Amino acid sequence: NYSYADKYIAAVTFRADATSQYNIFHRWGYFPSVGLAWIASEEKFFEPLKSKVDFLKLKTSWGKFGNDKIN
Q1: Count of Cβ atoms closer than 10 Å to residue 69 Cβ
Q2: pTM score, two decimals?
């Protein structure tokens, strides 16, 4: 996890899982993920809106997942 100026946030994860249900050449799965967030309510241009909305965060993420129960 990384935060810059308490407004911009990044999270990166990498996971490696193995299962004995597959042959030795296909036993491992690799699962990366990335998340980004921006706390818009911490920006100067947002000050006039603080009386209506005190906190606004925009987030997005991408990741890979897997399951050993599927072909």
Answers
A1: 7
A2: 0.77
